[in-house]
Design a protein that fits this description.
- The chain has 205 residues and is mainly α.
- It has one domain.
- The chain is 40% helix and 10% strand.
- The strands form two sheets. The chain has a two-stranded antiparallel sheet.
- The chain starts with a helix and ends in a 23-residue tail after the last helix.
- Keywords: Membrane, Transmembrane, Transmembrane helix.
- InterPro entries: Bact_transf.
- This is Bacterial sugar transferase domain-containing protein.
């Protein structure tokens, strides 16, 4: 039986091993981003986890904080640094989330943690994605990631919650490795990030 304890043990073991193996790369990216972003290598943001508990996610910062004359942040594509684009395309920007896994905020596999502002917009069915810990990768990510609609993404998330198993997690794990190697499904369009979720009636489905 795939218990919470077994899944947690699997998460911690793999996260620790990957962090150890990638520690030289982690250090190189940290230094490179600190230079490119004038001192800021990490991006922190509050996200909802299991049972909607709020935690602080950590990622490598792929964009700088340059602003226009009015003090507003420039569009994503104008703030993306060369090293930032590389780590985004290779998914290395997600590497620091292994620290979230070690802290117990996240799992290796599960629905991606989205913005706190989205919480009031979910339907009752979509809210089921918060019955498990969020993951670095998940069923939606290996089935389209940012190239699929919000509606389909949530459908995949809930399907995962209803069918969670060790075999499924291993399948997602190896499918993720394949996606990363092929650099597949990084973005839905020329936009750097996917369009915001605006609710079930107004979302771009």
């Amino acid at each position: 039986m795939y218990t919470r304890f077994f899944k947690g043990l699997f998460d911690i073991s793999i996260a620790a091993l990957v962090l150890l193996a990638f520690s030289p790369i982690f250090l190189i990216i940290w230094v490179s981003l600190s230079i490119a972003n004038n001192g800021s290598a990490f991006f922190y943001q509050q996200r909802p986890g299991k049972d909607k508990r709020i935690f602080k996610i950590i990622k490598f910062k792929s964009m700088n904080d340059k602003k226009d004359k009015e003090g507003n942040l420039l569009p994503d594509f104008k703030r993306m640094t060369a090293i930032g684009k590389f780590i985004r395309n290779t998914s290395l920007d997600e590497l620091p989330q292994l620290l979230n896994v070690l802290k117990g905020d996240m799992s290796l596999i599960g629905p991606r943690p989205l913005l706190v502002s989205y919480l009031p917009l979910y339907s009752e069915e979509q809210n089921k994605r918060h019955l498990v810990k969020p993951g670095i990768t998940g069923w939606a990510q290996v089935n389209g990631r940012n190239t699929i609609s919000w509606d389909k993404k949530f459908e995949y998330d809930v399907w995962y919650v209803n069918h969670i198993s060790f075999a499924l997690d291993m399948k997602i794990f190896f499918m993720t490795l394949q996606k990363v190697i092929k650099r597949a499904d990084i973005s839905a369009s020329d936009n750097t990030t996917m369009e915001r979720f605006v609710g079930n009636e107004k979302a771009n489905l």
